[in-house]
Amino acid sequence: MRELTYVARHSAEWREVADPVIESGDDAVVAPVAATPCDVDSAILAGHGPIAPPFAIGHECVARVVEVGDSVRGVAPGDLVVVPWTICCGQCEPCRGGLSAHCASVPHMAMFGAPIGGSWGGLFSDLVRVPWAEAMLVPLPTGPDPVAMASASDNWSLAWRLVAPHLRARQGARVLVVARGSIGLYVCDIARALGAGDVLYVDPDPAHRALAEQYGARTAEEIEPVRHGFDLAVEATGRVDQLALALRSLSPEGFCESAGNHFRPGELPLFDMYLTGVTMRIARDNVRVHIPDALELAASGRVDPGRVVSDVLDWERLPEALPQRHLKPVFVRDLPQADDA
């Protein structure tokens, strides 16, 4: 089979590897049918990632189950499933505590799409072996479009986690979103659907701002810090200066969620944070526990993640098209017709 391999800056190619096989009764083999790059993949393809190529890339997809081991009962061949981007067993102490990104059954940071914590392959591959399939795979509910949900493996479900629990605790919260890609736009959609009182989206890209406005957000190309302006700030740029902007804009006891991968160092306004009493979380997401809730919201019709999809492209175009600049392209093959879904 083929797996898409990141080989050099702005360059990816198909490479032939052995077909994955069921190695234990807990395994499944899946075939991605709608796959999309994570926001951080753009930085990796531009040569800014921390790991030298070559390696199999891709960690967001909806897939069709091809084969399952004898112990797998929750999914069956033919099912459409979301494949979480981190590897987790579902049984160890961290997994039972909801910390699937810190599974004790695998090396730290084990994931699809980069050789961290072992080599698990990438989800831009013709076939993928998924260990602990009963714990990992999440059936796609009836209703949501697989193309719109291609990002449920990571960015869509992460966006749900960045804002939904805060709005449950504080209805009408004022939300600042400082972003550069799909995560921030998903946050705008979810925040408005779940009752945010005000959403300000900050991004220099006019096309992104236009999408945020469709979700009901106010927008700005850039802003100065807004003292005590927001109850929740979401930063998804990977730039420490933008994280500092978000932190300086929080109300007393406000919360900042950072979803950016900060490959470069920088300074944070620690004294300002102390005086305001803010909380900041910058963390690898325990996405598996959030996927069902994120899918439930998508199925409710209250949100429209499909608006963020910038292009729907044929699977065979992956090597040429993935390194190009797109907001959120989805690469598809063998998708079911509406009557079959």
Automatic annotation (TrEMBL):
Q: Which InterPro entries match?
A: ADH-like_C (IPR013149), ADH-like_N (IPR013154), GroES-like_sf (IPR011032), NAD(P)-bd_dom_sf (IPR036291)
Give UniProt keywords alphabetically.
Answer: Metal-binding, Oxidoreductase, Zinc
Q: Which organism is it from?
A: Saccharopolyspora erythraea (strain ATCC 11635 / DSM 40517 / JCM 4748 / NBRC 13426 / NCIMB 8594 / NRRL 2338)
Taxonomic lineage of the native organism = Bacteria, Bacillati, Actinomycetota, Actinomycetes, Pseudonocardiales
Q: Which Pfam families match?
A: ADH_N, ADH_zinc_N
Q: What is this protein called?
A: Zinc-containing dehydrogenase
Domain Alcohol dehydrogenase-like C-terminal, which positions? 183-282
Q: Which PANTHER family match?
A: ALCOHOL DEHYDROGENASE (ZN-DEPENDENT)-RELATED, ZINC-TYPE ALCOHOL DEHYDROGENASE-LIKE
Tell me which cofactor or cofactors this protein depends on.
Answer: Zn(2+)
A molecular function annotated in GO for this UniProt entry is: alcohol dehydrogenase (NAD+) activity
Respond yes or no to whether keyword Isomerase is given for this record. no
Transmembrane stretches, start-end:
none
Domain Alcohol dehydrogenase-like N-terminal span(s) in chain numbering: 26-139
Which EC numbers characterise this protein's activity in its record? 1.1.1.1
